[in-house]
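Researcher: Sequence recovery benchmark, item below. Answer with residues only.
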C-alpha cells in the first residue's frame, strides 16, 4: 500500500502553543507534525467531520 500523500504547509503559532506542541510530541514519542495530525483528526472525529 502506498504511503499517504503529504502536503507542505507553513503557519505561525504562539510561543506557548509551540512549547505545548513540543511537550505533547515528547510525551507521545512522535514528531511535532504527527501531534498536529493527531489533534486535527481527533477534533474532526469529535465533530463528525471525518
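Model:
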Amino acid at each position: 500500500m502506498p504511503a499517504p500523500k503529504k502536503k507542505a504547509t507553513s503557519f505561525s503559532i504562539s510561543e506557548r502553543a509551540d512549547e505545548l506542541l513540543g511537550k505533547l510530541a515528547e510525551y507521545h514519542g512522535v514528531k511535532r507534525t504527527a501531534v498536529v495530525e493527531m489533534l486535527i483528526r481527533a477534533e474532526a472525529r469529535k465533530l463528525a467531520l471525518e
